[in-house]
Amino acid sequence: MTNRQIPLPDEVDGIFIGGGHNNLVAANYLGRAGAQVLVLESQSKLGGGLATEEVTLPLFKHNLHAYFVRWTPNYRIWNDLQPSRYGLETFVPEVQNGIPFRAGGGLVTYNTIEKSLAVMRTISPKDADTYGRLYAEFGEMVQKIIDPLYFSPPLPSDELETLLSRSKLGRRFLELNRYAPLDLVRELFEHEAIRTLVLFNVSVRGYLPVLDAPDGGYVVLLALFGSHHGAMIKGGSYEAAHALAAAAFACGGVAATNTKVERILVEQGRATGVELSDGRRVRARKFICSNLAAPLTLGHLVEPQHLDTDLRQATQSYTWNAESLFGIHLALREPPHYRGVEPDAPLQQALNYWVGYETSDDFIADMHQIRNETIPNNVGALHISVPTRFDSSQAPPGYSTAFAWQFVPNRLADGDTEIWDQGTVSQDFAASMVARWQEYAPNLAEAEIARTIHSPSDTQRHVPSMLFGDRHHGSQHPNNVFANRPHPSLSNYRTPIKGLYLSGAATHPGGSFTGQPGYNAATVIAQDLEYDTWWRPRHARDVLVEL
Asked: How far is CA 13 from CA 33, 34, 529, in A?
């Protein structure tokens, strides 16, 4: 599918700008509906954030961006596209979350709520009872409210509130959502380890800079319930891109990598094709779909005269997410061993760790650090995982891979976006991260064989659409979600240019490896152009009315 020796077609029904997972998902849905589709990717591989590379040593595989996913065989897109036919295999580790304590030992949770509550009761019986009750309540809200909202174009804010207010479950959802995430977690739980457990899972969704923002309480529901269902992809996250590309190829799709779109061609208010950086042109008979954020699609690829002044200004002032991830990838002789427990203890077996977050005040400190737009003087807390604990194919026999990420500002107060490429800034920061990690896992010093740094600048170089390293393609503030994302006039995936659509993480419901923006964009395109919606989508309006 990515053979660059095959000439591009002169014209197709639909062109997808960008080969990230959302466009691959949309291309699959529309390709199976009968559209002749072409995916154009500027980088050397499809997948965008689905990247698995040997960046430290040969045979040591490292997931550079997306790592754990929610795609399991009962996931809607999995059921529809059946990527397992093309080799994609996911599995859910038993131990999901681990919080090592500096003094030794720690807290773990599992992929079953019963085992998780048993652990929580050893430190706070009251919080364990609260957590169990909320897990059931939040699970119902996720399944009956949030999932339908996420697998559908967003409803206008006033209509959404009206529909939710008509049911008991909806009113409870609105009540919880009015809280700021930080305030809600602190009100619900007393023990700092339980607060940390929930707040970290909120933060990895891009909410660290806005933990104190009202009307963001819904993300706590998602974080608490979803934190027990993280899955891994066997062989690394790129295998998901490979399977989606193979599925698109099977229904007649074509793709090209190292093929940069320079301009979207517009004739009489309609998108008619693209011009590539090498001067070639491909015509789109029916539609063009971009998974680049609106400022990059409309601000860079569309000539200014085709947009009204207000929309041009809105895209120019778009609010990107305030934080990015600074990462280190390690090749290891053995996995990290956290102090205070045996080598085979559950704490050594978690899918996700957070090292250095032990109280809710730690999150407040990092939140303000991000807002101050300065490089942290001291490493705060790390998000860590050891993929080879669960998938030995990602390293040579007997060896391990691991990574650690820290939240950092993606831009500094003085506007410097290239600080990580200057002098020894990145090397020094990486060294301080390893030192912090060793405070909890002392064997790391002897276990490390090789190290590779992945700064926000590296993220943008690897995935140019992640501007400043923004993996979420925009702020997760409540004023940039649902019907406001990325702008009220663009929130239904359509643009003012007929036939031009958006599908990426900058559209509802946002970033992470979900495929939901691609699913929703495919639904809108199919309905506009009268393709068969063989996947039988349901609009959130219809689902909420039934509540």
From this structure: 12, 9, 11
Residue in the structure block whose two tokens are 């700021």: 180
Whether domain 11-50+76-86+234-319+475-546 has CATH 3.50.50.60:
yes
The confidence band for 1, taking pLDDT boundaries of 50, 70 and 90, is very low
Q: How confident is the model at residue 496 (pLDDT cuts 50, 70, 90)?
A: very high
Rounded to two decimals, what is the model's pTM? 0.96
H-type alpha helices, 352-485: 360-372, 425-440, 444-447, 456-462
Residue 278 Cα distances to 5, 262, 263, 281, 520, angstroms: 15, 9, 11, 9, 32
**For residues 342 and 504, what is the distance between their CA atoms, to the nearest angstrom?**
44
pLDDT class for 6, splitting at 50, 70, 90? Answer: low
Distance CA 492, CA 489 (A): 8
- The alpha-helical segments, DSSP class H, found in 157-256 are 157-164, 168-177, 181-188, 192-202, 218-226, 238-250
| Domain spans in the chain, listed from the N-terminal domain onward | 11-50+76-86+234-319+475-546
